[in-house]
Amino acid sequence: MSDRVRLGKSVLTRVAETSFEPSIDMFGSTPEEAWAGNADLLVPDFVNLAARGDAFMVDDWLELDAI
What we know:
Structural class: mainly beta
Low-confidence stretches: none
Distance between the termini: 23 Å
Number of strands: 5
Helix content: 10-25%
Order of helices and strands: EEHHEEE
Largest sheet: 3 strands, antiparallel
């Protein structure tokens, strides 16, 4: 994903506010085989199966300049 995107006459810039990696145990009702069965969708961007952790990031998009 690009950190900048043009929207009309504006250029928006992504600013990462925070990120955290909770354990996949947070999703206790998800069967263990579901993580491995969907690894092609989740790894490496959203889940680290070896560490049993999820990856979350909260972003803001700011207009820094206008043309």
